[in-house]
Amino acid sequence: NKGINYYHEKLNGSFSIKKVLPIFEPNLTYDNLLIKNGVQAYIYYDLLSHMSKEDENRYKNALITYCHQDTLAMVKILRQLKETLSLNSLKS
Length: 92
Prior knowledge:
Blueprint lengths: L16 H8 L13 H10 L5 H39 L1
Helix pairs in contact: 1-3
């Protein structure tokens, strides 16, 4: 079983969602989110039990929003990648 590899020069050796996403879906960003990356998500999740109820609710919602964005990003990347690979195979 031969694997399929895809590389884009803009990746610069990184395969993180934040690096791959702008190549396939440039309009979907994390800029307007309260939690913008996995490190922040980990930290705020760990701190939830030490927060006021108000902050706890705020950061729980922010974590849900961040996880939703990550999931949506992966779906969009996969769709675009499948489309790109399909178009490339038609050219061969």
